[in-house]
Amino acid sequence: MSQQGTKQRVDDEFIVDTEDCEERERAFRERGTARPITVYGNPVLHKECRDVTVFDEELARLVDDMFASQRAAEGVGLAANQIGVDLKVFVYDCMDDEGVRHVGVVCNPVLEELPADRRVLDDSNEGCLSVPTAYAELARPTTRWCAARTSTASRSRCAAPATSRAASSTRPTTFTATSTSTGSPSATVRMC
Ligand SMILES: CSCC[C@H](NC=O)C(=O)O
């Protein structure tokens, strides 16, 4: 992405998580360093993580490392505590059911249950990088909602892609997923 393109995106405050996926993901991971993935039993995986309250360069470096780690582990999603940091941050890089790649970063997500009449369960095989070798059929809604708050306390929502593979961008210092309706996941990621 050109400098101008980057500037434009920051000015617009939002990026669309299906756009410029290759460039955005590469930029993150090339700045980052892959860290070891924490495994079940590590205390950082067994307690609630802390809210992100400061959106600074340290957070940006964490996100870079998360993308680098996610790529090294051949993952499609990664939470900060999976590289040992107890902050509520996750990154994702995955394809939706239509084969569209999504790449993004979410801070302080809050899962919200879908009403029963909107749940469409997908019970495909699922694993976790922090529980190596274990896979199981796990029924999850095909569209999952999460809410996230920005540093300015505005609230927005996104449908995190439930399955697949892919990844993200320029250097955001604040990230928040927003938008979407039903159907295929389509989130935009705020860059403040
Ligand atoms: C539920 S989809 C993501 C599962 C896994 N990520 C973290 O453990 C990965 O394979 O990337």
UniProtKB/TrEMBL annotation:
Example GO biological process: translation
Q: Known Pfam families for this protein? A: Pep_deformylase (PF01327)
Which of UniProt's keywords are assigned here?
Hydrolase, Iron, Metal-binding, Protein biosynthesis
> Is Nucleus included in the keywords of this UniProt record?
no
**A Gene Ontology molecular function term of the record:** metal ion binding
Region: Disordered, residue numbers: 158-188
- What Gene3D superfamilies does UniProt report for this protein, alphabetically? Peptide deformylase
Keyword NADP assigned to the entry: answer is no
Q: Which family does it belong to?
A: Belongs to the polypeptide deformylase family.
Record function comment: Removes the formyl group from the N-terminal Met of newly synthesized proteins.
Name under which the protein is recorded: Peptide deformylase
Q: Highest lineage ranks of the organism?
A: Bacteria, Bacillati, Actinomycetota, Actinomycetes, Kitasatosporales
